[in-house]
Design goal:
The complex is a heterodimer of chains A (681) and B (423). With 681 residues, chain A is α+β, with helices and mostly antiparallel strands. Chain A has eleven helices and 33 strands. In chain A, a hairpin with a 3-residue loop joins β7 and β8. A five-stranded mixed sheet of chain B has the order 2-1-5-3-4, with helices on one face. Chain B is built from three helices and 34 strands. Classes of the chains: A alpha+beta (681), B mainly beta (423). Chains A and B meet through α10 of A and loops of B. Chain A: Component of the PeBoW complex, composed of BOP1, PES1 and WDR12. Within the PeBoW complex BOP1 interacts directly with PES1 and WDR12. The PeBoW complex also associates with the 66S pre-ribosome. Chain A: Component of the PeBoW complex, which is required for maturation of 28S and 5.8S ribosomal RNAs and formation of the 60S ribosome. Chain A: Belongs to the WD repeat BOP1/ERB1 family. Chain A: This is Ribosome biogenesis protein BOP1.
Chain lengths: 681, 423
């Protein structure tokens, strides 16, 4: 501190009286001095302080009776045992003030004198000095480590006269040295030495630095196509879901849960909750409290990030258009039915079943209003109505064009009806054929009873009644027109019966029940018999009497079945709105499963000549598909949906109940729950 | 407004105007042009009464503004366009509505009488006033077609074909109003759907569901043709159920693979038959040979021939009426398609007096009157029927007849324009 010129006392030296200076050989730092003073010597120090800090006052007022220290700056303990300290100008001893106070006096002094705490002893003189307020203040400031001078500003802006910048004006006005412009001889000598060394080849010029980089590409030779390429394996972290409306502090009212929803939310498992918080509404953003689950969520996010394995999915980059098989356009697959042409009205309840004569002139329909109606196809004229005892479940026209016979399943019996339509010779011959039956001598045990029609029934056209023990669900003819099969609504092994019309002989082909039989079908050419249960279609060889194949339909409940006239393809409609196409040569699983309908399929049908098949469904539509079967075994069938035909009104949730193709024209008939039969051409 | 140079022309001398080019507004429609002609005629002849005209540009009736029509037909607008005009065809006037007991399957009318076949197994004769004259019962099934053979003041010969596979030749004594079955034509093995009598009135042909076309003699005789009957049928029963003497066909023409829906004589020795096998076949009646086949792609329900324009019109299940030229050898192309019906066209009939007009009935309950010069839209729609129209006929006296499944036979008077007859 003392080294700085600023710390010096501000009075100039020449202002001191000439007599005095020798008494102050050195300035004493007041603070330090004071602090190290023992209490007995503090008087002198205080005096000195007093002098120091009030110089004018001290010099002007205290000089005549000065009892100051005259011994100089010597260790004061030298005078410890003397009653005086030093001598004055006359050589007399300057006596210390009398100090005879014992401990009691000191204590009393301490108790009584209010200025006791600011009284110090001057060591130099041994006198007690009472410190003034300024001095006490100074002591306090020094104790705090502050500057003694109140007015001193330690943080004055420093002006740096000597900086690295070259100023336009010199700091000093001194003229430049001579040596500054006379070349240095020493340097000349050094330079000549260097020049000589270079000439002699002792110093060589510095080698130029090579420009080759010191680093190299670690992955330069990596295979760019390798799967494990470093950059390829980078999987960026999955992004968090962005906040939505429900996260808002003031969400729209539809996002706010009601009381029941809140209750339901609370009762849910935390993992099952759709939202992991309850959206709440606040008056303003200011009112939103701290989010209590914040740490949880960050933690879970961190868990997600490091626990969930991130794997790159190898995505095959294929144009979805390429995956769709190239199908021909429907208009290239003409002809197929496109519009509704005729509506056959007359039934008062749902029309369950349809059949058509092999020539295509007559249509027969069976209905829940307990009638069978015969229609002229070309005009929708009802030619005949046959009232029956019950709901007509199934109907089938004999496919043999030389026989005019219709099998009708009503309740527990199958009626064989001669409709007396068409060629007179034909239906006459049919009657003769039925009448020519001669009963065998011995009665055979049969599962059913064959009863000839009564006269009254005969007048209505009924020729034979085959009485079953259970309600009959379905009846279907063999292609030759002699055999027919009936399906009973039963659980036992008596579900399927095969009847021979000419011999009036019935048999039960199955010993065991293999499930609920839905429908049966004869193969059009070969001696095969198809039995559809709920989930499987079994193919039996009638000659060898064995199971040939079991087709898995992949459906829950088969409703209907139809066979391609070629005999190698089968379609199955099911109540779970699927249509399965089987290629018998290909597999026992469906070649294709078509899901065009929206509701349960009720019926499927093949066209006899055209490559068409149709399906009718509860959704009220008939879907016509092109189903081309090739003779070439290598070529799979081509299935193209070509037309959705709508027209039937939905009644009791039922739409189309039966579909049927015209035998010669590309026309399709459909019967519906609305009591109509419709022809689409 | 843009103007078009036009020259007017007409066949009728009564309404002829000067053969000079006029400048007519491009946007003018039929009414504007008709007014223009009427003004021209009134300027020439003060006694002229207002007449509605119809206009033909390039043989097509004008139905839209002139400029739009020319754009459609690709006629250049810079040159003088020739517009032909004819007196506007008046709408057919409803005359009678004859009630039947059942569906009407067929109708044929002469100048005096109307013969209808019905689904109640009878044929009926009506006077033109709609009075029932005679009911001809004898068939055991639906009568599918009827035809007049001969008409005298005393007696008439007529034919009825039925679903019971027979055709009956009846003699109707007009004076005594008695009808007698002369011959029962047997031989078809299916419902006889169509019959047609040739122009000499001595033969007729029939088409049946059994795919056969048979030619019969229409001349009544006293002899009965021998018929091979099924031996096991009692002779007596056969006799009792038979009406008239049995007649067998002169010729049987087989070639169709499906039911024959319509037959007609297109010439003295030429038969035309339309079938469900999507073909129209032309047969030589003398040799019994097949002359040509016109192949369509839909079932034909009806066919009609006009000797005036020598064209066949066919009605099929795809809602179109198609015009064919039976004499064209190269590809037997469809000349024209008339499309406006929304259901099967069950019946078509050419006008016997007008070469451009025909009538058609359809399952959409509408009878349409067509002019082949306006193939986009029919001249008139006759929407009187409440159910399917099954048959139509057009007599030389200008009577339009249509019968259908609503048991009604509607008669319309169609005023034939004198100037157009034979045009």
């Amino acid at each position: 501190m003392l080294s700085s010129p600023k710390e010096r006392p501000r009075f100039p030296q020449q202002l001191l009286p000439s007599a005095v200076p020798r008494r102050f050989p050195r300035t004493i730092p007041p603070g330090e001095k004071h602090l190290c003073l023992p209490e007995s010597q503090s008087l002198r120090a205080a005096e000195a302080l007093c002098v120091l800090h009030h110089p004018h006052a001290a010099f002007l007022s205290t000089l005549p009776q000065d009892i100051r220290n005259t011994v100089g700056n010597i260790p004061m303990e030298w005078y410890q045992d003397f009653p005086h300290i030093g001598y004055d100008l006359e050589g007399k001893k300057i006596y210390k003030p009398i100090r005879n106070k014992d401990e009691l006096d000191k204590f009393l002094e301490k108790m009584e004198n209010p200025d006791y705490w600011r009284t110090v002893q001057d060591k130099m003189t041994g006198a007690d000095i009472k410190l003034t307020d300024e001095q006490v203040d100074l002591v306090h400031r020094l104790q705090k480590g502050q500057f003694g001078d109140v007015h001193f500003d330690p943080y004055e802006p420093a002006i740096d006269f000597f900086s690295h910048e070259v100023m336009i004006h010199p700091v000093t006005n001194r003229p430049a040295d001579k040596r500054s412009f006379i070349p240095s001889l020493i340097e000349k000598e050094k330079v000549s030495k260097l020049v000589h060394a270079i000439k002699m080849g002792w110093i060589k010029p510095r080698k130029p630095k090579e420009d080759t980089p010191t680093y190299y590409d670690l992955w330069a030779h990596e295979d760019p196509n390798s799967i494990l390429g470093r950059h390829k394996m980078h999987v960026p972290a999955p992004k968090m879901k962005l906040p939505g409306h429900e996260e808002s502090y003031n969400p729209p009212p539809e996002y706010l849960p009601s009381e029941e929803e809140k209750l339901a939310w609370e009762q849910q498992e935390p993992a099952e909750r759709k939202l992991n918080f309850v959206p709440r509404q606040y008056r303003c953003l200011r009112a939103v409290p701290a989010y209590s689950r914040f740490i949880h969520e960050r933690f879970e996010r961190c868990l997600d990030l490091y626990l969930c394995p991130r794997q790159r999915k190898m995505r095959v980059n294929v144009d979805p258009e390429d995956l769709i098989p190239k199908l021909p356009k429907p208009r290239d697959l003409q002809p197929f039915p496109t519009t509704q042409a005729l509506v056959y009205r007359g039934h008062s309840s749902l029309v369950r079943c349809l059949s058509i004569c092999p020539g295509g002139q007559w249509l027969v329909s069976g209905s829940d209003d307990c009638t069978v109606r015969f229609w002229e196809v070309s005009t929708a004229r009802c030619m005949k109505t046959l009232p029956l005892a019950g709901v007509v479940k199934s109907i089938s026209w004999n496919p043999n064009p030389t026989i005019c016979l219709v099998a009708i399943a009503v309740e527990q019996s199958v009626l064989l009806v001669n409709p007396s339509l068409g060629d007179k010779l034909l239906y006459g011959a049919t009657d003769q054929l039925l009448e020519s039956y001669v009963a065998p001598e011995e009665e055979r045990v049969q599962p059913v009873q064959w009863v000839a029609a009564t006269t009254e029934e005969h007048g209505k056209g009924i020729r034979l009644v085959v009485q079953h023990s259970r309600p009959v669900k379905q009846v279907t003819w063999h292609g030759k027109g002699d055999y027919f099969a009936s399906v009973l609504a039963d659980n036992s092994n008596m579900q399927v019966l095969i009847h021979q019309t000419s011999k009036r002989w019935s048999q039960n082909p199955f010993r065991k029940s293999k499930g609920l039989v839905q429908c049966v079908l004869f193969h059009p050419i070969r001696p095969y018999f198809f039995v559809a249960t709920q989930r499987y279609v079994r193919v039996y060889n009638l000659l060898k009497q064995e199971l040939t194949k079991k087709l898995m339909t992949n459906c829950k409940w088969v409703s209907s079945m139809a066979i391609h006239p070629g005999g190698d393809n089968i379609i199955c409609g099911s109540y779970d709105s699927k249509l399965a196409w089987f290629d018998l040569d290909l597999s026992t699983r469906p070649y294709q499963l078509l899901r065009h309908h929206k509701k349960a399929l009720r019926s499927v049908a093949f066209h006899k000549h055209y490559p068409l098949f149709a399906s009718g469904s509860d959704d009220g539509s008939v879907i016509v598909c092109h189903g081309m079967v090739y003779n070439d075994l290598l070529q799979n069938p081509l299935l193209v949906p070509v037309k959705v035909l709508k027209g039937h009104a939905l009644t009791w949730d039922l739409g189309v109940l039966d579909v049927l193709f015209h035998p010669t024209q590309p026309w399709v008939f459909s019967s519906g729950a609305d009591g109509t039969v419709r022809l689409f051409t | 407004m843009a103007q078009l140079p036009a020259r007017f022309r007409t066949e009728s001398q009564r309404y002829a105007v000067e053969d000079v080019p006029f400048s007519v507004p491009a946007a003018s429609e039929v009414a504007d042009l008709s007014n223009l002609i009427n003004k021209l005629l009134a300027a020439r002849d003060e006694e002229h009464k207002h007449v509605e005209f119809d206009f033909l540009v390039n043989g097509q009736f004008l139905r839209v503004p002139l400029v739009a029509h020319m754009e459609m037909e690709n006629i250049p607008t810079e040159e003088v366009v020739e517009i032909e005009y004819v007196e506007k065809y008046m709408a057919p006037q409803p005359e009678e509505c004859i009630f039947h007991d059942d569906w009407i399957s067929s109708v044929q009318a002469t100048e005096e009488w109307i013969l209808t076949g019905s689904y109640d197994q009878t044929a009926r004769i009506w006077s033109l006033e709609g009075k029932s004259v005679m009911t001809i019962a004898g068939h055991t099934e639906v009568v599918k077609d009827v035809a007049w053979v001969k008409q005298d003041s005393l007696s008439c010969l007529l034919l009825s074909a039925s679903m019971d596979q027979t055709i009956l030749l009846w003699e109707w004594n007009v004076e005594r109003n008695k009808v007698k079955a002369l011959h029962c034509c047997r031989g078809h093995a299916g419902s006889v759907d169509s019959i047609a009598v040739d122009c000499t009135r001595t033969r007729f042909c029939s088409g049946s569901w059994d795919k056969m076309l048979k030619i019969w003699s229409a001349v009544p005789t006293d002899e009965e043709d021998e018929m091979e009957e099924a031996a096991n049928r009692p002779r007596k029963k056969q006799k009792t159920e038979q009406l008239g003497l049995t007649r067998t066909p002169l010729t049987t023409l087989s070639g169709h693979t499906e039911a024959i829906s319509s037959v007609l004589w297109s010439d003295t020795e030429e038969i035309c038959s339309a079938s469900w096998d999507h073909t129209i076949k032309l047969w030589d009646a003398e040799t019994g040979g097949l002359k040509s086949t016109l192949t369509g792609n839909k079932v034909f329900n009806s066919v009609s021939y006009s000797p005036l324009c020598r064209r066949l019109a066919s009605g099929s299940t795809d809602r179109h009426i198609r015009l064919w030229d039976p004499r064209s050898r190269d590809g037997s192309l469809v000349l024209l398609s008339l499309t406006s019906h929304t259901g099967w066209v069950t019946s078509v009939k050419w006008s016997p007096t007008h070469e451009h007009q025909l009538i058609s009935g359809s399952l959409d309950n509408i009878v349409k009157l067509w002019d082949t010069r306006s193939c986009k839209a029919p001249l008139y729609d006759l929407a009187a029927h409440e159910d399917k129209v099954l048959c139509v006929d057009w007599t030389e006296a200008g009577l339009l007849l249509s019968g259908g499944a609503d048991n009604k036979l509607y008669c319309y008077k169609y005023p034939a324009i004198a100037s157009d007859v034979g045009a």
